[in-house]
Design brief:
- The protein is 46% helix and 9% strand.
- The protein is an alpha/beta fold.
- The radius of gyration is 17 Å and the shape is globular.
- The N terminus and C terminus are likely disordered.
Length: 213
């Protein structure tokens, strides 16, 4: 499903993605929608000094697989603590999926947060763009050799009058591997005091010692 600017919303996928087996000593599993989210979580952990030893970050390959993975790794499966990230638009679906998987009952964003799933205002990509600001994002595009390509997109008909943040989102999604690459670039560049709160809340719940964050 696409919005009027052509931005694709993730939908339920048909099959459970191939995920690695749990490593020995795994103490918690973090479920995120895509690879770019997992890259951002791991990069933020390094910057915030959060030890992810024993934590397996699993990219579900689509929000529709998170419920199945919760069943595999959660109370009805490996019985491990689960954490995760959720886009605002996916809250109703994920509430039902986690309830079905036996993780706990959630009816709204607050309920998901109580279960350990941090909710992004729109999605993590949007949170990072807002934390950096448009000028900083464009400076990063320049540093990575992508600014000319971004300017070309801004001149294209469907995007010429779009908000710059939507242009950025489209640009990240248009290149092969670009969204994944910039997930790490953005997290590395954002000031620590502006690290998106969903990432902070998620990682605080994974700390062996919560005083560190």
């Amino acid at each position: 499903m696409r919005d009027r600017r052509g931005i694709t919303r993730s939908r339920v996928v048909a099959a459970l993605p191939q995920v690695p087996e749990l490593a020995p000593g795994t103490r918690a599993v973090v479920l995120v929608e895509g690879i770019s989210d997992s890259v951002a979580v791991e990069a933020a952990a390094r910057r915030l000094g959060v030890d992810l030893a024993g934590v397996q970050v699993v990219a579900a390959g689509g929000v529709g697989s998170i419920g199945a993975l919760a069943g595999r790794f959660g109370p009805k499966g490996a019985a491990l603590p689960l954490r995760g990230l959720c886009d605002a638009a996916e809250v109703p679906w994920l509430c039902k999926a986690l309830t079905k998987a036996g993780v706990g009952i959630a009816l709204d964003p607050g309920g998901l947060e109580a279960l350990g799933f941090a909710v992004c205002d729109r999605d993590l990509e949007d949170e990072l763009i807002r934390a950096l600001g448009v000028e900083r994002v464009e400076a990063l595009f320049a540093a990575e050799g992508d600014l000319a390509a971004f300017r070309t997109l801004q001149r294209q008909g469907p995007w010429r009058d779009a908000a710059v943040t939507d242009q950025i989102r489209r640009f990240l999604g248009a290149g092969a591997g670009r969204k994944i690459r910039y997930a790490g670039v953005f997290v590395q560049a954002v000031a620590l005091e502006r690290m998106p709160e969903p990432l902070r809340r998620l990682l605080a719940g994974l700390q062996p010692d919560p005083r560190v964050v």
